[in-house]
Amino acid sequence: MEATKVGIREFRTDLAELISSGNPIAVTRHGQTVGYFIPTRSQDAAELEALRQASEALETMLAEHKVAADDIIADYKKARRKGSR
Questions:
Q1: φ/ψ (deg, to 5) at 28
Q2: Residue-wise over 63-72: b if at least 16 C-beta within 10 A, else e?
Q3: E-strand spans in the chain?
Q4: Looking at CB atoms within 10 Å, which of 1, 12, 19, 47 has the fewest?
Q5: Could you read off the pLDDT of 29-54 as tens digits, one per residue?
Q6: How far apart, in whole angstroms, are the C-alpha atoms of residue 61 and residue 25?
Q7: Quick check: pTM over 0.85?
Q8: For the chain, what are the domain ranges?
Q9: Do residues 11 and 37 touch, judged by C-beta distance below 8 A?
């Protein structure tokens, strides 16, 4: 799906309308893309419950393997630095 390009002023002015469209938006300033806005659909109770359960399962797995989330983040950052060289 192609992002709709809009200037930053238009983005501010038409924000409510742009959000309701559901399409990704590339926000530009002086013709250069400065960011993207990707609207999400509202989550119903079942989706939120599924996310909660997934989060609990992840926490359990990390605890069982004695892995800290900070260690995973540090490893990820290290791998990204290696990959950018």
A1: -115, 155
A2: eeeeeeeeee
A3: 4-7, 25-29, 32-37
A4: 1
A5: 999 999 998 887 766 788 888 888 99
A6: 37
A7: no
A8: 4-37, 45-83
A9: yes
